[in-house]
Amino acid sequence: MSIRVLILLYIVLHSYAEDNDFISDYFAFKNVKNIVGFSCGDVTSNFNLLRKLNHAGVFAIIKDPFSNPDVRLILNSDHWAVGVFVDLRCHNENLEYIFSESSEHRMYGYLYSWLILGSNLNQSISILNDTAYSMATDVVVAIPNQNGYEMYDVFNHCKYRGGLLNVIKYGTWNPNGNLTIYLMEPKLIRRGDLNGLRLKIAGVIQYRPKNMRLIDYMKDINTRSLESMHKFVYSMISHTGDLFNFSVHAGEIYYWDRNSIHGRMFELLKDNYIDIASNPRVMVSERLEFASLIGAAWPVRPCFMLLSTPTNKIKSDLFLKPFTAGIWDTYAVFMIISMIIVGLILKHEKVKSEEGFGAIVLTIGIMSQQGAYLFPKNLAGRIAVVQILLFSWMMYNYYSCSIVSARLSEPFDKIEDSVAVLADTHMRIAAEAVPYLNYLLKKWNWESDYFRKKRWDPLPLSKRYLPIEEGIRQVGQGILAYHTDPNTAYPYIEKMFDSSQICQLTEIHLFKESVMGMYSSHNAQFLEIARVGLIKMQSSGLRNRQIKYWSSKKPQCQQDALSTRSITIYETAPAFILLTLGILMSSVICLTENIYYHRFTQKFTQQNENFRLSKQSSSQTDNANELQLITISLIRLQSCTKLSECHMQNRKQTIDLVHEEESMKSVVYRSGCTRYLLSLDFPAGILLMIKMLNDVGISVSIKGPSAEFNFLRFLNVNYWKLGVFVDLRCQDQNATVIFDKSSDYRMYDYAYNWFVLAPNISYCLRKLNDTAFSVITDFVVSVPNYDYYELYDIYNPNKERGGTLNITRYAIWNEDIGLKILRRWNFHKLKVIVAGALEQKPENISLLEYLEDHDNVNLEDWPKIGFTLVQLLTNIFNFSLHAKAFTTWTDYTNGPLMDSLIDGSVDIGYQPSLIIHRRLDFAKVLMEIMPARTCFMFLTLPSTTIQFSSILRPLAWNSWYMIFFFFIICSLVFSFITKSDRIENKDYGNSLLTTLGAICQQGAQNTPFKFASRIALFQIGVYGLLIYNYYSAAIVSARLNIPLNKLNDSLYKLVASKMKLGSEDTVVTNIILQDHNPEMIYFKNYWLRIPQQKKIMSVEKGVIKMMHGGFAYHSIPEHAYYYINNYFDQKMICQLTEIHWLRPTTVALYTNRKGHYHEVGKIGLMKIFSTGLLKRELKRTFAQKPYCQNDGNSVESKILYSE
Hints:
Blueprint: H1 2-30, E1 34-38, H2 43-55, E2 59-63, H3 71-75, E3 82-87, H4 94-104, E4 112-117, H5 121-127, E5 139-145, E6 148-155, E7 166-174, E8 178-181, H6 187-190, E9 197-204, H7 214-217, H8 228-244, E10 246-253, H9 264-270, E11 276-277, E12 292-300, E13 303-307, H10 317-320, H11 325-349, H12 358-367, H13 379-409, H14 419-423, E14 428-431, H15 437-443, H16 446-456, H17 461-464, H18 468-476, E15 480-484, H19 486-496, H20 499-504, E16 505-509, E17 514-520, H21 527-539, H22 542-550, H23 569-600, H24 609-646, H25 652-665, H26 684-695, H27 711-715, E18 722-727, H28 734-744, E19 752-757, H29 761-767, E20 779-785, E21 788-795, E22 806-814, E23 818-821, E24 830-837, H30 847-851, H31 861-877, E25 879-886, H32 895-903, E26 908-914, E27 923-939, H33 957-980, H34 988-999, H35 1011-1040, H36 1051-1056, E28 1060-1063, H37 1067-1072, H38 1078-1087, H39 1092-1095, H40 1099-1106, E29 1111-1115, H41 1117-1127, H42 1130-1135, E30 1136-1152, H43 1158-1170, H44 1173-1181
Parallel strand pairs: 1-2, 1-3, 3-4, 4-5, 9-10, 9-11, 14-15, 18-19, 19-20, 24-25, 24-26, 28-29
Antiparallel strand pairs: 5-6, 6-7, 7-8, 12-17, 13-15, 13-16, 20-21, 21-22, 22-23, 26-30, 27-29, 27-30
Protein name: Ionotropic receptor 75a-like isoform X2
Signal peptide: 1-17
Membrane topology: Multi-pass membrane protein
């Protein structure tokens, strides 16, 4: 009895020792340094395991599953990898609790490696809880066998989306310490097929039309500006779905709280109602409580948009800026010298009426271009006056020109890109209702917080949000700063703004340009797939392409079409200030004179009564005038005070041969989308083959030769490579059916690798169907020869075009040396049929001669460049070229070339064609070869609108108001001057005319005698000089910047111009008319109303009609440039304007869907491109755009309408 107990005890201890070795070897393979175990062994066994793990440098904790452990506390890890082993052989109910808790706390990610020890595979799997399993799950179930353990990989892509538990043999372990792993590929590759699982996405959708399905709206390019970030995310997830074979179900959120910071979408992510949000959001740490970040996706820069307005700061430096300080100093010295000279002249000429300060007044009048009422009699005096006049005239012109240059070089007064600065303005604000706005205002930075508290929070809720169209309209009026996404706003701006408004458009960013992130739910079954998909698309350039596809084009400011900018009151303020100071000074002097008079004149004696009385009468008149001057000055001071107050507000040998051949090619065998073994009742050789292929990680499915099955479903693949081997040694007639059907379904391209076991080559060739063979076919036949096999490569470049079957010895194989490769490029003049559309070919010239003629490529440049590239391909691969041409076509979408590619009568089209999605059903894109665009071209002519505002436009309205106000004051002052100087026949009307003459630089026709009067006249003269210079400078700058009335690049504007339209007869026009863009639909309705005979004409005729103005001609620009260079002069070239009908894009060459020459053509074109031949041919073929020499423009004459 004791012997039996000892034997049993030995077996148990030996079993536990094997378990410990297995656990230690497994986790050493996983390179895990922290292990938690739930063991059914005794204390001694657990202690031995701990000691073994510690000697290996592994920290371990072993718990008894009967103790109801705290799973979250023991297994929680945020940064370190954790290995977990669970022994199911003790049959404890707490085991289910362990798996349930670990699922609840999401412990099946990359940081966790699970090893489950069970006695029966089915029983063990039934205990597992796969709720939180995903593609990243690392769970291995180990079942003991006679030689150790068999391991099975267990995972589920996503249970709550209908995923099934997958169990695949993972490896074996034996007590000799041999751990064999079958699945060595990364988990992403071996688990990358999600078998059509449905992923749910949702986001806030605001602009979807009620009559359009959501799935159609998310793909609609015509509304790209509306919810562009949603459409971008949907496109990215759809591409990822194609990559990993899952489907996408899109939903929309109708309501969201505008006052919520994170929004309804993050609540849905937190509740796992959706998997991925279709709204990209700002990447911040607090949102990780609600969702998991996938990665940066969509660039975004939301901003406030407004029109820049002139600054309200007085530009005091503009007054002195025309001259440097040195010039001003020299100017002052020469003025003093001039005054002395004039004084000497007056003294020599004995002009008593100009005594005192007369020389100063006369000199300032001359310098101010007011005229000199001085006629010296002697020669020296006259020469001096002439020199002073010439000096003042030159300085006056230099000063005027300097003001003009200052005005031309001055930039727009655009507000600083800061919302804090915007908050301090008095501009009205509003925003588009978008979910991320509240977060940016409340959680971003101090500037947004300052803006929110000062401007946003006090704003009533009813005034905060405006529809996008209304908001942009008010921005155009200059009364609103509107917050929106530029991708949404730009189409409206391009449609509603003119050139001047586009140039004045200012963007103030709520936060600087950043990248919004894509978020997924915390369950994260799709998290790693989404991340990998995003990285793949970013590294391949697909992300950038999608961003460009869904983003809107920013309207460009046409610097050569700037409108006149009026001078504001803040620029002319120095002149007004100078005049005001002069008035004040005159008033003070006048008051001083009166005080002096009243205090001292009364001491005169009574005997001079008549003289005193006459002086008293004169003093009373002066007193009244002075009081009026003081009153006017006070009114001016009060006006200035009010003015300053207003200024403060995004089989073995066979088996070995098959094994080595297919392993070398690294082909993953798959049937459909699932890896499986059809039957275990096959002969032992079949089982041996399956085992050997599985050992290298290749999944295999084998059908009997007489089996009936769905051929297309069994062999069809879209994304994965498929290896197919066929054994012809069983003499079964089904082999012919296999080859016939595979030809019907065209299963001889890059996705298929065929390997055929045949008794001899002849037998194989009788069964073979090479109809669908091409140059890329991978079809290898193995024939036995004594102790080795010979492998033959078989292909046919193109049977339909007379190609013959090529059989080439490819390799040999035996057990000793393995597989030895021995090794298609010459097509032996195989016929290739190419075709294109031609219109201008003369009847007396052969087609090949015409296409090879590069001396006259002005009209057929597209087909000629395409034919040149196809000719280079024929030289590389030794084809025989047969060319065809279509000279007529009707108004339908596909055109004759696409019809020929569809019916297979043409192999390659040498006519470059637009890349359109619906064409991919009929043909294959060979390669994009060149840029393409079409446009309406016309001459920009001067406007025929009478421009009443051109007279007043040089100055702003507030400047005109101030000028008028000061003109009245000056008139009154001048009237006082005339009265005080006792000038006869000088009433208020004469004073008005004299003041107007002084301001208009016509001269002041009197010289006052009194000092105060002369200062007032001096101020009026200088004031008139400044206003005259500002006005003339504004007119000159307006004439230099005069707009050519160029229209914005918009078809809306072209229709509104009411110009006559014409077009070249080209195939591209029919394609453009199928576009459903709203702008295209609008223009199409207008275009179709024009009679066909009036709008279709030759290029030469169209260019000639353009020369007369009022006519816009549609053509491929390179066609028209040839004639423009011949007919247009330099002025016409500068007036040439282009409005695109087909926006700049690229065109490509196409091949038919059978694709015999597709890969050959692609390889050849890539060689041509990499060697620079393509670039050279493009430069040689295309006409150069005429160049406008801006530095040699002719003088633009004034027209009647502008005067």
